[in-house]
């Protein structure tokens, strides 16, 4: 009986996660997630990096190309950076999620960007959510200091 209850609970969780992702509108130009955002006055990633060298935070709009999204339910995404590393984008209070087809799209995010240190535990959690292999997750052994954006809204530009 206990095994049946566990299987039923696991099945419900999987179904809920699948439904959560299917309820998200697919990404296409003009679609906004979270707070309504326009593309005016958005800064590119290299400009953001320069601004964060001079200040501890940047509040405004940032344009970038999505290179990764949380595979579980779209709870985070990453923006491409010229150096190859990606910038983590989280969403204020998990108020909205991204569709899986947003990878490869250019977006404008509005929110606050800061340089943060992310713990090993949190990095491993993000890697699991992104569907990384056990080997890739095991290679995470040190915290990472990097730009993190907390977005109130996301606009798909192209």
From TrEMBL:
Keywords: Signal. This is DUF4920 domain-containing protein. InterPro entries: DUF4920. It comes from the Bacteria. The keyword Signal applies. Residues 1-22 form the signal peptide. The keyword Signal applies. It comes from Chitinophaga lutea. Pfam families: DUF4920.
